[in-house]
Design a protein that fits this description.
By secondary structure, the protein is an alpha/beta fold. Helices cover about 45% and strands about 25% of the residues. It has five helices and eight strands. A four-stranded parallel sheet has the order 4-3-5-6, sandwiched between helices. A hairpin with a 5-residue loop joins strand 1 and strand 2. The radius of gyration is 15 Å and the shape is globular.
Length: about 170
């Protein structure tokens, strides 16, 4: 069973922020017209699930490569239940796209493998601006909202596993 939330694609209907004390959204400033829409979708989904606005911390970094550093520092300093990284990388004429995408993907994977806090990948890696717009509240929903749904699910899973291990 699923439901439609905050302009998202279909996400689980059992979304609840119960037990989540804080969620950090780390957003890249590059392509801000896209990343702002993704962050708004994430905030709306978290609010709809019951997370108070004061429990959502938003951090802005210059670009997508910087997301990993800010996420790692946020985990260490703010101790959130989950982190959502939001960025938008649009392919250009140089291999820069590949390096940026590889860097942030590996960075988020490393944070998840080595850490105790779920880090959710809500970085659009698209061929053109229209594909990004379609995924930032357009025809294909809002991938920031879907990232928030994933953050809620992973924070709940993490909390359950911690409780089971005690």
């Amino acid at each position: 069973m699923s439901t439609k939330l905050a302009g998202a694609g279909f996400v689980p209907s059992s979304l609840s922020a119960e037990g989540m004390d804080k969620c950090v959204i780390v957003k890249a400033e590059w392509n801000s017209h896209i990343t702002d829409a993704l962050a708004a979708g994430a905030r709306a989904t978290l609010a709809e699930a019951g997370l108070d606005d004061s429990s959502i911390v938003e951090i802005t970094v210059p670009g997508t490569v910087e997301l990993t550093f800010a996420a790692q520092r946020a985990i260490r300093m703010l101790r959130p239940s989950a982190v959502i990284v939001i960025g938008c990388v649009i392919r250009g004429d140089t291999p820069h796209f590949d390096y940026v995408c590889q860097s942030v993907t590996q960075g988020v994977t490393m944070l998840n493998a080595q850490g105790d806090t779920p880090v959710v990948f809500s970085v659009l890696t698209v061929e053109n601006e229209q594909q990004a717009l379609d995924r930032a509240g357009g025809l294909l929903g809002n991938k920031g909202a879907e990232g928030a749904a994933t953050a809620l699910a992973m924070a709940s899973l993490n909390s359950s596993l911690v409780a089971a291990g005690k």
